[in-house]
Design brief:
By secondary structure, the chain is α/β, with parallel strands linked by helices. It is 39% helix and 19% strand. Bound molecules: ligand ME8.
């Protein structure tokens, strides 16, 4: 097992605010970093910004700012975004920092002495958005083969990097190391690209000035991609702190979007070979988030702001969606509806309900104390399998599959509640009740440990509600079965993921309700927990004309809070004492900041709403069949 783990994201261009495509890579890298910390390894997770180049120079000019003033503002905004998403980077590197300028200049000096860099004449085409040079033959219909945009003719003196020298050694390395370029489809693309032959590449420019001047010839500035790629070794301490560099380099994985695999899997390793440095262990090119059919991108302007999503749905929901929705490696469509569905189904319903049902049962059946198991555990094999699968997938960089593995345990545990029917065991005084409740609580605890790479708030909340200190979930070893001490006093709390009320959410184009109502079976009906309740108090919900907040006695130890759309039909003071019919097992939902646990039935006519009440008073909690 490796003792340390170095993971990188691309360094992003601070030419515009970042969008969820950037958050996607960064959250995935964060998950890997958190996972390796959970394994007790020394982790070095670096992200940062790629601040030089013509594109930035032009944008700053348009904004009437100096390039550095322009990027400073965007970089501050990027750091805020990473803070919002709780990205646990160890270093944030900016290519305008002196530590980096020094490394780039020194590399140019060294490579000129080895003959890997030489002065010549450049003729060809340049795409500014991609910061890429192309020879005539590579253009597609006279346009950039990468983004399809216009290219500019260039004819200027330039330094070249002798990339052609490294085609053979690179191919040999890729063939000897099947995991070097991942996934396999990208590996195959790179192999065929190299087999077509590699030409030397231009690595300096004289037509603009926002960059690092070459020490041997300051009329030239370093080509932005050479400047950018070398950030990885600067951050690890190259030429500044040799022992740190030896510890942290080579990187275990460069996580990048698929469009820049070519730079990371060909140009970058060739530069490292020329410098006599070890190559990264893996370059992983993940797929794109698409909006409609198109790649979400700053230059197209079709972007989604992660800040708004976090504000609306919370950072764990956004992180979960990014990590879970799209199979890692493939392209996938972003939609807000899918984000809401994931949150409501996986987080609120499956995970949230498992926690609230489990803690409610422990409270009711065993006085809030986790019982000591007496017999065989049913869920233990599933929990152990979930740990194994999550680990195997994270070791293979299969982030989405790792998340799926954890939720297999969540789903199995929910099913187990139905199968074991603890309420019946309780009624008959069956000693197996202790085993069932322990199984559920312990599975939840293991789920919390396994979720630590992915979510930042929920694992702590689960630990807290189980009555544990989340500082005790710092290691993967804590996911071993049996870590929950019997006798722990649980601490019930609010639902960890209230359902997103779709009316409150800004969902575009909601699906139309189908004509008519489908038939349901008796079993479907039996799934509803309908009960008589007595309203204890009612008040208006601030800022909502239609809503009343009610407290209702439904025969439990404590009354429930419900939010109902009755304010236009009833004055709050008319309601206390009225009896109502409550759907008691409706998923909790947060409505205007109030968590509503259940719904009351009412009849709707043209003249208004009438709550449905029993003909004669019945004890609160009476079951309605
Ligand atoms: O390329 N889907 O920076 P950049 C998924 N500075 N990921 C996306 C994405 C999308 N729609 N859009 C962007 C650069 N990304 C260079 C990198 S590295 C030495 C220099 C992510 O600001 C993805 O990781 O254009 C992609 O590779 C990166 O942002 C591009 O960011």
């Amino acid at each position: 097992m490796a003792e340390r783990f170095t993971v990188t994201t691309p360094i992003y261009y601070p030419n515009d605010r970042l969008h969820i495509g950037h958050a996607y890579t960064t959250v995935a890298a964060d998950a890997l970093a958190r996972y390796h910390r959970l394994r007790d390894e020394e982790v070095f997770f670096v992200t940062g910004t790629d601040e030089h180049g013509q594109k930035i120079e032009e944008r700053a000019q348009q904004a009437g700012k100096t390039p550095i003033a322009y990027v400073d503002e965007i970089v501050a905004d990027i750091r805020d975004l990473w803070q919002l998403l709780q990205i646990s980077y160890d270093d944030f590197i900016r290519t305008t920092e002196p530590r980096h300028e020094h490394v780039v200049q020194e590399i140019f000096r060294r490579l000129e002495t080895t003959g890997d860099i030489y002065l010549s004449q450049y003729e060809g085409w340049y795409c500014t958005p991609c910061e890429s040079f192309w020879v005539e033959g590579k253009l597609v219909d006279g346009k950039c083969p990468s983004c399809g945009g216009p290219v500019q003719r260039l004819n200027e003196e330039s330094y070249f990097f002798r990339l052609s020298r490294y085609a053979e050694p690179l191919l040999a390395h890729i063939e000897a190391n099947p995991g070097f370029i991942q996934p396999t489809s990208r590996r195959n693309e790179m192999i065929s690209f190299i087999r077509q032959g590699l030409e030397d590449i231009s690595v300096s420019r004289t037509s603009f000035t926002w960059g690092i001047p070459l020490p041997q010839d300051p009329r030239h500035i370093a080509y932005v991609w050479v400047d950018a790629l070398t950030n990885y070794i600067t951050a690890c301490g190259y030429l500044q702190d040799e022992s740190r560099f030896e510890r942290l380099w080579p990187a275990d994985v460069h996580l990048v979007g698929k469009e820049i695999v070519r730079f990371h899997a060909i140009i970058w390793p060739a530069i490292l070979l020329a410098l006599g440095l070890p190559l990264p262990r893996a370059v992983y090119g993940h797929g794109w988030l698409l909006l409609g059919e198109q790649k979400m991108s700053k230059s197209r302007g079709n972007v989604i702001d992660p800040r708004q999503l976090v504000q609306r749905y919370g950072r764990d929901a956004v992180r979960y969606y990014l990590l879970r929705e799209v199979p890692f490696g493939a392209d996938g469509n972003y939609t807000e509806d899918a984000l809401i569905l994931r949150t409501n189904v996986d987080l609120a319903n499956d995970l949230g309900n498992l926690l609230s049902r489990t803690t409610a049962m422990i409270e009711r059946f065993t006085d809030g104390v986790v019982p000591a198991p007496t017999g065989k555990s049913v869920l233990r094999p599933t929990a152990e399998e979930a740990v194994k699968k999550a680990v195997r997938n994270l070791d293979r960089l299969q982030v989405s599959d790792a998340v799926v593995a954890v939720f297999e345990l969540v789903r199995r545990a929910n099913k187990f509640i139905e199968e074991a029917a603890p309420w019946q065991l309780n009624r008959t005084g069956d000693p197996r009740l202790a085993d069932v409740l322990y199984d559920l609580a312990e599975s939840l605890r293991i789920v919390a440990v396994l979720l630590k790479p992915f979510l930042v708030d929920a694992p702590h909340a689960i630990y807290r509600q189980l009555g544990l200190d989340s500082a005790d979930a710092a290691r993967l070893a804590d996911a071993a079965w049996g870590g929950l001490p019997a006798g722990t006093r649980i601490q019930r709390g609010d639902p960890i993921f209230p359902r997103i009320d779709v009316e409150d959410a800004a969902v575009s184009d909601p699906a139309q309700a189908p004509e008519g109502t489908p038939e349901v079976s008796v079993d479907d009906f039996a799934r509803l927990d309908l009960r008589v309740g007595t309203i204890l108090s009612a008040s208006k919900v601030k800022g909502a004309d239609r809503l009343l907040e009610l407290t209702v006695d439904v025969g439990e130890s404590e009354p429930r809070t419900l939010v109902a759309g009755l304010a236009e039909h009833y004055q709050p003071e008319e309601l206390p004492g009225s009896q109502v019919v409550v759907v008691a097992n409706l998923q909790p939902a947060k409505i205007r900041g109030v968590v509503s646990r259940g719904m009351i039935l009412a009849g709707k006519t043209q003249s208004g709403m009438q709550i449905v009440s029993p003909r004669q008073a019945l004890p609160p909690g009476t079951k309605i069949k």
